[in-house]
């Protein structure tokens, strides 16, 4: 059973627009349910001793005064900030780099202590996409393996915030963590694809604490009553996304329209007949024009596709996964899965 004092973590996916501003929107769900537990002024504490006072605007779901942090850590977009609630006036903040693992924090001369990645355990994230099922195994990012791969024992434990533990193991030759199927069984889920993000925290010995985030960017509270009734999966809120498989005609010098397939009907219905979306990748962004035929039976990407395609170096067979950002139907983060063995 979850304690009434438990406050979940939340994440923020950074874009180039975020990093050029002094204000940063944060998860509205966190602000709605837990905003009363946060002071108007809070301190953000980074692992290397860096501290920053910012203002919290609950009604607008904003942190104001963030630009110094973006500048100090040279954040450009594509990173993830993980916020861990400590008290009304304090959050620990962890910076996940574009490579999926915590960054190597710069040393702060005036900090009271040196950076130590073993304090709190080094974190890495696993993005979840509908195109790849996650049931029993994940491959940690190479940046994480370079730092800690040699210290992961063959047998590990996966620990959830409610204290439940599951046996797992690490295949060194494959650089793969396995045994997540036990978590799926415990939650009565066929896989972990109802979530948006998995966060793994390694204690440097043999335990990985696993946290789950759904499409609302807030850590999922595991309600044992919902699990036992088989309704836990229905309570989750997967992110809206759509997928484009790059075809030969998408590579023409003139764009006839890139279809948003009918299987993504729920998302298509949120768009008007002529709508603009913004797509982000690392420190870049592109405006794309969404259009619908008069009969509303076909939705396509028109203006902006050629520039987007060329900037990302897309080829036939590549797959673009567009996942909404901050629960917005007009802002998406794109992940590109390159084709294997397909000639351009």
Automatic annotation (TrEMBL):
<protein>
    <recommendedName>
        <fullName>TF-B3 domain-containing protein</fullName>
    </recommendedName>
</protein>
<dbReference type="InterPro" id="IPR003340">
    <property type="entry name" value="B3_DNA-bd"/>
</dbReference>
<keyword id="KW-0238">DNA-binding</keyword>
<feature type="domain" description="TF-B3">
    <location>
        <begin position="285"/>
        <end position="340"/>
    </location>
</feature>
<dbReference type="InterPro" id="IPR050655">
    <property type="entry name" value="Plant_B3_domain"/>
</dbReference>
<keyword id="KW-0805">Transcription regulation</keyword>
<keyword id="KW-0539">Nucleus</keyword>
<keyword id="KW-0804">Transcription</keyword>
<dbReference type="GO" id="GO:0003677">
    <property type="term" value="F:DNA binding"/>
</dbReference>
<dbReference type="InterPro" id="IPR015300">
    <property type="entry name" value="DNA-bd_pseudobarrel_sf"/>
</dbReference>
<dbReference type="GO" id="GO:0005634">
    <property type="term" value="C:nucleus"/>
</dbReference>
């Amino acid at each position: 059973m979850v304690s009434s004092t438990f406050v979940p973590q939340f994440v923020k996916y950074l874009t180039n627009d975020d990093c050029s501003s002094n204000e940063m929107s944060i998860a509205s769900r966190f602000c709605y349910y837990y905003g009363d537990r946060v002071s108007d002024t809070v301190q953000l504490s980074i692992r290397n001793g860096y501290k920053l006072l910012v203002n919290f605007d609950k009604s607008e779901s904003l942190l104001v005064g963030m630009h110094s942090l973006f500048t100090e850590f040279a954040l450009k977009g594509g990173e993830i900030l993980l916020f861990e609630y400590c008290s009304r006036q304090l959050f620990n903040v962890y910076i996940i780099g574009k490579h999926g693992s915590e960054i190597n924090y710069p040393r702060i001369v005036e900090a009271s202590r040196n950076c130590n990645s073993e304090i709190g355990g080094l974190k890495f994230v696993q993005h979840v996409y509908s195109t790849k099922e996650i049931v029993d195994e994940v491959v940690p990012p190479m940046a994480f393996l370079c730092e800690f791969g040699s210290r992961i024992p063959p047998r590990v434990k996966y620990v959830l915030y409610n204290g439940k533990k599951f046996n797992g193991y690490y295949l060194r030759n494959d650089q793969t963590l396995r045994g997540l199927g036990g978590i799926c069984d415990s939650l009565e889920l066929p896989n972990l694809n109802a979530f948006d993000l998995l966060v793994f925290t390694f204690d440097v010995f043999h335990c990985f604490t696993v946290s789950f985030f759904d499409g609302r960017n807030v850590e999922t509270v595991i309600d044992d009553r919902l699990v036992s009734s088989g309704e836990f999966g229905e309570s989750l809120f997967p992110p809206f996304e759509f997928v484009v498989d790059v075809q030969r005609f998408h590579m023409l010098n003139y764009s006839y329209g890139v279809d948003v397939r009918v299987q993504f009907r729920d998302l298509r219905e949120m768009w008007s007949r002529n709508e603009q979306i913004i797509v982000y990748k690392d420190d870049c962004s592109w405006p794309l024009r969404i259009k619908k035929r008069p009969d509303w039976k076909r939705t396509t990407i028109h203006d902006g596709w050629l520039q987007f395609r060329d900037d990302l170096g897309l080829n036939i067979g590549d797959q673009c996964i567009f996942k909404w950002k901050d629960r917005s139907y007009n802002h998406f983060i794109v992940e590109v899965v390159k084709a294997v063995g397909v000639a351009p």
